[in-house]
Design a protein that fits this description.
Strand content: under 5%
Number of domains: 1
Order of helices and strands: HHHHH
Radius of gyration: 24 Å
CATH class: Mainly Alpha
Largest sheet: none
Shape: rod-shaped
Distance between the termini: 52 Å
Structural class: mainly alpha
CATH architecture: Up-down Bundle
Number of helices: 5
């Protein structure tokens, strides 16, 4: 009996250690993937924000804005956001996915506006729309921090 108790204790300790190690490893892998997902989605959102701020600077005639030389388009920003959502939706909450899908849908109007030759004449107040999209992208990045439990 004196020999059996230490053996059982060692087996139990070994099993518990193995179980906890496996759980910690799974958690670490999940966090690594969450961070990669955050990086991809936030990069797409940051590109959107930069493009929108560049358009606002362009409409205001601010040639010295750090965003004024942006060579992107709302269509390309929308496309990269949609791809990032498709590839990383498993790491977002349902509310986060819904909010990002709504943002992508809202970008359609701006994408159509950008195709117009005289955007300011055909779409008065378009600067406000670009500024709103920039603010939405910024607030969504903050939501990502919470949603992915990174911050």
């Amino acid at each position: 009996m004196n020999i059996v108790i230490p053996i059982l204790a060692a087996i139990l300790a070994s099993a518990l250690t193995s179980y906890l190690t496996l759980r910690i490893r799974k958690f670490e892998l999940l966090q690594i993937n969450k961070i990669a997902a955050f990086k991809e989605v936030s990069t797409a959102l940051t590109k959107l924000k930069r493009h929108c701020l560049g358009k606002v600077a362009e409409f205001e005639g601010n040639e010295l804005s750090p965003y004024s030389a942006n060579e992107s388009s709302i269509y390309l920003c929308r496309q990269s956001l949609a791809l990032a959502l498709d590839e990383n939706s498993i790491f977002l909450s349902q509310a986060g996915r819904d909010r990002l899908e709504n943002l992508i849908n809202e970008l359609s109007g701006l994408a159509n506006a950008e195709l117009s030759r005289n955007i300011q004449e055909n779409f008065p107040g378009i600067e406000t729309s670009y500024l709103e999209m920039s603010n939405k992208a910024k607030s969504f990045i903050e939501l990502l921090y919470k949603d992915l439990s990174i911050k």
